[in-house]
């Protein structure tokens, strides 16, 4: 009876190690005690019915570039941000840049439910001209299947360890050992659950990378654009230097009007005193 009672403990201990990289003796023992512990996701799902085994988990992303008049860049950026949040989007980042040298530009990074993507495209087409688009797709099916299989195995291992914790008549050393294994199993389970949530974010919502800017001039689109930017930067730096010099003169000049006459008076008095001594 005692051997039977602690046989599940051996199984669970092997299950706890299912996430480690050491594949030698552990793989053989695991295969003997729990054949499905590290099975590929496709096989695990086929064993459950095969319906989800054929499902594909795709991480889709769109990179969009929209041109709109300079005075409409910020309003369109704010409108898209507000509408996307109302559609259930997750905002990753938002940036708006304005300067005297360049036209305003804005960017948005967010994750949007797939059903809301056409509405976002329609909003962008209404507010400006979509000048550049790029769509990327990455198949995450293997990762999702593997993570779900690990979650299933770890959940079963945790449940078995909990049963062992509640058995009566066990020695204190055995109870402590089971408790340690239970803690390690729960830690691994929490880690893989976070990984599954991350995969869900990537596969259940579409990532949108949006850039909004004013139409570029012919010079900005040509090979002379770097020279124009450098010339503008030089002019700006020269203006900054002149402004700094002017500020210095304005600050120092009142003091010079006091210091110079005072210095002349002191020098004159010192000469008179020196002449009197001679």
Automatic annotation (TrEMBL):
The keyword Signal applies. The chain crosses the membrane at residues 242-266. The keyword Membrane applies. Residues 144-202 form a coiled coil. Residues 1-23 form the signal peptide. It holds the Pfam family DUF4349. Residues 56-267 form the DUF4349 domain. It comes from the Bacteria. This is DUF4349 domain-containing protein.
């Amino acid at each position: 009876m005692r051997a039977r009672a602690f046989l599940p403990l051996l199984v669970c201990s092997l299950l706890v190690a299912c996430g480690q990289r050491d594949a030698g003796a552990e793989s053989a023992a695991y295969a003997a005690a729990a054949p499905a512990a590290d099975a590929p996701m496709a096989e695990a799902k086929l064993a459950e019915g095969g319906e989800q085994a054929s499902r594909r988990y795709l991480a889709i992303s769109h990179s969009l570039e929209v041109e709109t008049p300079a005075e409409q860049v910020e309003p369109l950026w704010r409108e898209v941000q507000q509408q996307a949040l109302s559609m259930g989007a997750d905002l990753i980042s938002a940036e708006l840049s304005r300067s005297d040298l360049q036209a305003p530009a804005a960017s948005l990074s967010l994750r949007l439910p797939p059903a809301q993507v056409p509405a976002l495209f329609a909003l962008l087409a209404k507010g400006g001209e979509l000048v550049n688009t790029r769509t990327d797709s990455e198949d995450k099916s293997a990762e999702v299947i593997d993570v779900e299989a690990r979650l299933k195995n770890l959940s079963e291992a945790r449940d078995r360890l909990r049963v062992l914790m509640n058995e009566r008549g066990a020695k204190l050393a055995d109870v402590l050992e089971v408790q340690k294994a239970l803690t390690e199993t729960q830690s691994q389970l929490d880690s893989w659950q976070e990984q599954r949530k991350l995969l869900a974010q990537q596969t259940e919502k579409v990532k949108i990378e949006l850039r909004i800017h004013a139409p570029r001039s012919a010079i900005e689109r040509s090979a002379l654009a770097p020279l124009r930017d450098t010339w503008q930067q030089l002019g700006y730096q020269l203006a900054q230097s002149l402004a700094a010099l002017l500020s210095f003169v304005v600050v120092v000049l009142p003091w010079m009007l006091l210091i110079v006459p005072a210095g002349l008076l002191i020098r004159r008095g010192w000469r008179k005193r020196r002449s009197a001594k001679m």
